Amino acid sequence: MASHQFLDNFIIPDHILVPGSSDSDVENVGDVPHCPVLVFVNSKSGGQLGGHLLKTYRDLLNPKQVFDLGEHAPDKVLRTVYANLEGLNVRGYQFADKIKERLKLIVAGGDGTAGWLLGVVCDLKLSHPPPIATVPLGTGNNLPFAFGWGKKNPATDQRSIEAFLDQVMKATKMKIDNWHILMRMRAPKEGPCDPIPPLELPHSLHAFHRVSESDEFNMEGCHTFRGGFWNYFSMGMDAQVSYAFHSERKKNPEKFKNQLINQTTYAKLGCSQGWFFASMSHPADRNIAQLAKVKFMKRHGEWQDLDIPPSIRSIVCLNLPSFSGGFNPWGTPNRRKQSDRDLTPPFVDDGLLEIVGFRNAWHGLVLLAPKGHGTRLAQAHRIQFEFRKGAADHTFMRIDGEPWKQPLPVDDDTVMVEISHHGQVNMLSTHNCKSKSVYDPSSPHHEDEEDDSDEEDSVAEEFRKFGAADTFRIPDEVDVSHLS
Q1: How far is Cα 243 from Cα 265, in angstroms, rounded to an integer?
Q2: pLDDT digits (tens, 9 = 90+) for 269-314
Q3: Per-residue confidence (pLDDT) for residue 69, from 0 to 100
Q4: What gap in Å lies between CA 276 and CA 471, rounded to an integer?
Q5: Residue 151 class from Cβ within 10 Å (0-12 exposed, 13-18 middle, 19+ buried)?
Q6: CA 471 to CA 112: how far, in whole Å?
Q7: Closest among 304, 445, 302, 325 to 378, alpha carbons compared
Q8: What is the pLDDT of residues 331-365, one digit of tens each?
Q9: How far separated are the first and last CA of the chain, in Å rounded?
Q10: 16 with 64: CB under 8 angstroms?
Q11: Containing H/E element for 480?
Q12: Whether residue 105 has pLDDT greater than 90
């Protein structure tokens, strides 16, 4: 089939995109496109790739359906397009509903960019909310990887873009849970109490911001922040190392242009922060159990205390089966584990987070082993962390790769962080999708093998220099004995 005929499946005519089109413009339009798409590109992602990708999409499609996120906020774009469709529908043009039913979104950027668009779609509560395909164009790329779109930055030539569009047309819908996070602390008598924000926040609702006085979560005498995430929330030493790395990169960006150098720097920071040798170099007040009282809710209305082993220095609340490097810290519990501990495989649309603990970076190496997993702590649809005075003056947290330093109470008040389920959006997935749906009969609901062990230290010596993810990795070229 000729290229222009293929592209007709995706091209949206001007009268759909531009408000105020005349009846004569509308009536001269032919068939409704089979797979109309709106394309959002973070032109600053992936080095120069973002700009090249933006240009190719604009060359192939209607330039008015391709948006540079540096210039166009997605919430404004979607409001305009949907308002125009509603107006056309009121004027009697029935194809407007067909466009809404068939519309798909493409977002190219890192996980922060993808999360921004997912958050907008979730919060706008659109009629026929469009499903979203994610182009990997960042560093983590966990969202694209989890839904089968790969991890490597894409080619930007015409043939590659057309191949991607073909995948989008053939992709299937899969829902993904959205998680709301609330942080509340009493306003201090003097001095600031704001969390020190991530250095490069995405523009989404899924970055912390203080609620207004009219917000339902506002509480008099308190500072309340709210946001959300799609992949994970983590707290403890993994976030501490990530924060140190991001801080170094912001101070000296010229030193972070090579992947090996980045990994080596990450490894050195991991050692200097004590992440690789936590049990020897860190006092017990860095353990999660010492920092916070943690409660979770597996069933509605039933809060339980979370039993966290005293050696755990990092806790991850995971939504997708892709953490940091595409590995799944939860694994798939076998039948005995499911029965004894009321556990399930990790589904992305079951309203449950998987809560996993790690002792140190060496512990993370277990993810390399077949059926390897972290310390499974619980599954929950709500989890609450309560920090009291005395354990430490701060801790470190991360949302979908964005770290920050969080001050803890200096008086007798508490800092509370609560995570809860907050709706779903539709993703587009390929046949390589790693995520599993609780509604898909082909998804594995159990693992028959009985070697899914809780003995997480059985990692061969030759793996000791290969972490499962950036958080745990020491590159092969780096001599562990020279790290300090």
Answers
A1: 13
A2: 656 555 555 554 455 556 888 888 999 998 788 899 999 988 888 8
A3: 92
A4: 10
A5: middle
A6: 18
A7: 304
A8: 777 777 776 777 888 899 999 999 998 876 544 44
A9: 60
A10: no
A11: none
A12: yes
Residues 6+ apart with CB under 8 A from 399: 181, 198, 206, 207, 208, 227, 229, 232, 233
The label of the residue with tokens 């220099």 reads: 465
Query: CA torsion sign, 374 to 378 to 384 to 388?
Result: negative
* 403-444 tens-digit pLDDT: 788 877 777 677 889 999 988 999 999 998 988 898 876 655
Residue 357 structure tokens: 């603990």
Structural domains of the chain in order of their starting residue, each with its CATH number: 1-170 (3.40.50), 178-425+433-439+458-472 (no CATH)
Q: pTM, whole model, 2 decimals?
A: 0.80
Mean pLDDT of the chain: 77
DSSP symbol at 321: S
User: Are 364 and 395 within 8 A, CB to CB?
Assistant: no
Joined together, the tokens standing for residue 143 give: 């969202």
> Bridge-partner residues for 38, per DSSP?
105
Q: Which of 234, 434, 451, 440 is nearest to 354 (CA)?
A: 234
DSSP structural state of residue 192: -
Write the DSSP symbol of residue 447: B
Written as one string, the DSSP assignment of 425-444 is EEEEE-TT-----TT-TTS-
DSSP 459: -
Separation between Cα atoms, residue 116 and residue 178, nearest integer Å: 12
Place of tokens 């949302």: 399
Q: How many CB atoms lie within 10 A of CB 10?
A: 24
Two tokens at 257? 């242009």
